[in-house]
Every structure is written in structure tokens, then in C-alpha cells.
# Entry
Amino acid sequence: MTRLGPALVAFAALSAAGVGATPATSAKLDWMLHCQGCHGAEGEVGVPGMPALRGLVGSRLRLPEGRARLVQVPGVANAGLSDARVARLLNWMLTTLDAGHLPEDFEAFTGAEVHALRIWTGARAPGTGLGTPGGSPPGHGEIEEAKPR
# Structure
């Protein structure tokens, strides 16, 4: 077997795991592919300048704009994942990395909520169109408007 052989076997295993995988397994795969490179395998920070998520990210939901901000982080908003997959990833991240700091009234993200927040910022998965209506996203408090440079 060539040197590439083990990598191909690992890729095939990961690809097969994604087919028919449970939502938690799919969310963890999305975390591995889209998040852990910067935030570390356990959300503990992997790249200088990236925020730690473990033990901190759940408390962001206590802020009026917290839900919107989590969806609008550039790496999340532009990950190329469907709205439903982003919602599943955010829910997995919050409950896995920081369940202890979630608000008591925590409600899981839905694909519809992610969709509304992505349209508001203009960030969309490839092939799903763009939109940037004015004002704050519905039900998520005021968010500071971007100022021209």
C-alpha cells in the first residue's frame, strides 16, 4: 500500500460515517471539518487569537444579541453548510462544550432561525442566494450596524 493508502482508508471511514449518521455524529464531523482547526479538538483554542469555546460559549446566549452573533461569526455563517446543519452544529457545540453555562430557558437553534440570521447578514451556503434586508433580525435585539470604513 502506498503512503496515501492509510489516508484514503481514513477518508472512506469518515465519509461512510456521514451517510446515515445520527445528528450528533454528523454535527461532530462538521465540527471536525469546519471548526476544530482554529478552536482545537475540544474547543480549547487551537490557533492564537481564536477564542476558547469550552466553558465560555454558552454564556454568550445570555446576551441579547448572543444567538445572532453565534450564527454570524464568519466561519459559521460562511461554512458552506445548510441552515439545518449549522443549527445542528451550533446545538452540538453548545451542549457539548458548555452545557453548564446555557441559560435555563435555552432553546435549540433551528434551521429556520439560522436561515433568518444568515439572510440578515447576507451569508448563505453556496447556491442558496443572498439577501440583506435592513434592520435587526426578528426577535434578536439590536445588533450594531457595520460602519463604512
Summary: The first helix runs from residue 4 to 18. The mean pLDDT is 75. The radius of gyration is 17 Å. DSSP finds seven helices and no strands in the chain.
